[in-house]
């Protein structure tokens, strides 16, 4: 979920998704803010954070790392 989006920003979208499904896993991405800022603003609704730019391999690595910890 990109944090800076038009219309409904990423933070609002994340909160809405979590209202629908508390178990939803969300990877927040941004090139403008830090992981500390997003974690403090969203109070644990974000599972992981990635800085932009990132590659497909970066995304796969972070998903795999999270899945490995969840087992």
Tell me the number of helical segments per DSSP (H or I, 4 or more residues long): 3
DSSP, total strands: 2
Give the CA-based shape: globular
Query: What is the C-alpha radius of gyration, as a whole number of Å?
Result: 12 Å
Task: Please tell me the overall pLDDT.
Answer: 85
How many strands, which pairing sense, and closed or not: the largest β-sheet? 2 strands, parallel
Order of H and E elements: HEHEH
Structural class: mainly alpha
For the record, the count of structural domains works out to 1
Describe the structure.
This protein has 71 residues and is mainly alpha-helical. The protein has one domain (10-70). Helices cover 48% and strands 11% of the residues. It contains 3 helices and 2 strands, in the order H-E-H-E-H. The chain has helices at residues 10-20, 35-42, 56-70; strands at residues 27-30, 48-51. The chain has a two-stranded parallel sheet. Helix 2 links the parallel strand 1 and strand 2. The model has no long low-confidence stretch (mean pLDDT 85).
Spell out the blueprint of helices and strands.
Blueprint lengths: L9 H11 L6 E4 L4 H8 L5 E4 L4 H15 L1
Parallel strand pairs: 1-2
Features:
71 residues, mainly alpha, two-stranded parallel ribbon, 3 helices, 2 strands, 11% strand, globular
How is this structure best summarized?
The protein is mainly α and 71 residues long. It has helices spanning 10-20, 35-42, 56-70; strands spanning 27-30, 48-51. It is globular.
